[in-house]
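Input sequence (508 aa), recorded before submission:
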Amino acid sequence: MTTLVRDTASGSLTRDALTVLQPGFAGTTAPDWLLRRIGEGLASVGLFGRNIEDPAQLSALTAQLRAERDDILVAVDEEGGDVTRLEVRTGSSFPGNLALGSVDDTGLTRAVARELGRRLAACGVDFNWAPSADVNSDPGNPVIGVRSFGADPELVARHTVAYIEGLQSAGVAACTKHFPGHGDTNVDSHLAMPRIDVDPDTLHARELAPFRAAIAAGSKSVMSAHILLPALDPDRPATLSPRILTGLLRQELGYEGLIVTDGMEMQAIASTYGIERGSVLALAAGADAICVGGGLADEETVLRLRDALVEAVRTGELPEERLADAAARVRALASWTQAHRVRGAETEPGAASEEGTAPGTDTVGVGLVAARRALTVTGTREPLTAPPYVAAFAPVANIAVGDETPWGIGPELARLLPGTATGTYAADVAVDRVLRDAGERRIVAVVRDVHRHPWMGRALDGLLAARPDSVVVEMGVNQAPARGALHIATHGAARVCGTAAAEVIAGA
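Predicted structure, token format:
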């Protein structure tokens, strides 16, 4: 039997369909079409690097959005570390999760997340698609890597909790991702459908441990993963699976907050189900908000998804009560963030005030303090006194990180050792060329996940055979053996990680 929709379907049903969408847009000011849709019920907007120039511009943009709707959720994918939108053009002032996990000081993680949240809130952003609670159990993972706190489920769990507490104490809603865990994959879900073939006991002990902790800590939202886990559902990926989103997350784990999908235009969904069909299935499975806009950032996308949801209700494929429940959860989160803006950020339970700062941050930002503590240094620490040649071996950036954000240590070394030169090399590099470019200068070789890129390992071997006094800086997952006269593992490629490494090399 076809579900009977309300008499006000043209109003409240359409409004609910708009409410559950979290779209993006192009430009650094809100386009007219977006403002119109906000007036019609759109309750969330997602911001990306393309929308952000600096804090003043971002503050003006969020004010423009709130002039249309004061309680609108303004979301951003700001993990810190390699994945930054606030500082997409300069690199982040905060190290990412792997660096924080390697220090393993939950007070420091909480302080970093609180300061990151404070900066977001000051610019009018109140919803952060972070932290990543994935257990990076596969070191070859092409999309998580340094975005994870580590490979130990308990370590990941305690730092996930600290991050949530720090972020939400600043009045910014956390979004713990990617449920039920994207760490044990060797496929990037931006490009295809990953599959995790492990037994239920392993999933519960490993992947789910950080999410159980996040739920207990009061994470305001959880983001689903576009991954297939046959032990939980052999047919549908987590984002589209009633067994996983409703059965596991809602009923078994008892989660009552907002469930957000990962980007629906990612190929794991878009190329198999399409974004309209995928969005209907996601809502029916138990998701409350549809994230779209990283790649599709126009009005047509919003209207296509709105109309698909309305039609699914009218045909009975999507129960109207399920759409109304999803919209109500979005509005509830919007009310929470609005209340924080009205009364100012208040410390959430569990975020002890004495742990809100980190030692040594009076004159140095907490991000640099954390990056310094995260370094693993092997070999001689005798500082360089002459400007070196930085040879950066650059892999293709994964889509979550993007290729707009600079990384490396060249600019920081040039500040400490004026005259430092930098060359960037890709997979077809010949070691002779690097040696020729360097001349007589001492070489600092910068790599990123050398264990995942055979070409990079071969180039490094050839370089060290010719110039064994070279310094090696690993800015990805530190999986390969340390080599070089001096080896520095930064556990991430944020700008502050480069600063910390440069200080060691120059003896600053």
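Checked by second reader. The two ends are 73 Å apart (CA to CA).
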